[in-house]
């Protein structure tokens, strides 16, 4: 994922709005006094912090807690619905950036709250409560790609970010960065909570979400991101996203219309 590193701004106003981001648009590092939900009702939105990257396609919503430095980048023509929470409602949600699945009730609640429609204050607060109730069911950790802190491990993950399709083995990466295969394997488990192969597969799925949003064909996406065949790509993608890449792309097209 590309990086943007100017000094973070602090955003303090509470907002409920919607807007559009063109492909590749970025929102520079910043913090919010309030907690913030971003729902890309079309397109893909990536949220990056020092802890890693969370990718939210159109069937997910991204949560960033109060005071947490982060930046965003859009992939494809992305329509973003923004809803912020202060006080008790933020305290009910995770204390780190998180991606949640979007239920039909959650989707409709977010669309109403960000539509500009006039609501009575008590009705608005009840609807906000519905949003939180739907979110606390459980986060979608599969959309989170953790970042490395060890210099040797970070060197490997930087190379993978630069070329997700590479077929280099962990031993070959180790020779490049000056670390043993066993050491790197241990670091992947202890720092990132997954194996080298699991982390690389998740990285490729995140890039696949972006390529599919840009209109690439499923077969082309599989080939360009290093999968041995389309079947293995479809299986890996479905395990993370919960639907096949073809179905995911159909939903993106329907949302664009």
Automatic annotation (TrEMBL):
InterPro entries: AraC-bd, Homeodomain-like_sf, HTH_AraC, RmlC-like_jellyroll, RmlC_Cupin_sf. CDD domains: cupin_NimR-like_N. Keywords: DNA-binding, Transcription, Transcription regulation. PROSITE patterns: HTH_ARAC_FAMILY_2. Residues 154-251 form the HTH araC/xylS-type domain. SUPFAM superfamilies: Homeodomain-like, RmlC-like cupins. PANTHER family: HTH-TYPE TRANSCRIPTIONAL REGULATOR NIMR. This is AraC family transcriptional regulator.
């Amino acid at each position: 994922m590309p990086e943007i590193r100017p000094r973070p701004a602090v955003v303090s106003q509470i907002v409920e709005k919607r807007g559009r981001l063109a492909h590749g648009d970025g929102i520079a590092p910043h913090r919010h006094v309030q907690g913030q939900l971003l729902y890309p009702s079309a397109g893909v939105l990536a949220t990056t912090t020092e802890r890693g990257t969370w990718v939210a396609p159109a069937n997910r919503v991204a949560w960033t807690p109060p005071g947490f430095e982060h930046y965003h980048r859009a992939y494809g023509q992305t329509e973003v619905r923004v809803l912020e929470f202060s006080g008790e409602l933020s305290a009910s949600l995770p204390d780190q950036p998180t991606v949640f699945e979007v239920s039909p009730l959650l989707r409709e609640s977010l669309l109403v709250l960000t539509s500009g429609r006039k609501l009575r204050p008590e009705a608005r607060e009840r609807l906000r409560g519905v949003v939180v109730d739907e979110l606390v069911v459980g986060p979608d950790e599969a959309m989170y790609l953790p970042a490395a802190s060890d210099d040797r491990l970070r060197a490997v993950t930087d190379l993978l970010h630069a070329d997700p399709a590479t077929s280099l083995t962990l031993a070959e990466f180790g020779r490049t960065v000056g670390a043993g295969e066993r050491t790197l394997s241990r670091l992947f488990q202890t720092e990132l909570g997954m194996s080298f192969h699991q982390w690389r597969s998740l990285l490729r799925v995140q890039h696949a979400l972006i390529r599919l949003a840009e209109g690439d064909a499923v077969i082309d996406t599989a080939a360009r991101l290093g999968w041995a065949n389309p079947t293995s790509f479809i299986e890996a993608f479905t395990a993370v996203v919960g639907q096949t890449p073809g179905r995911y792309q159909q939903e993106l097209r329907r949302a664009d219309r």
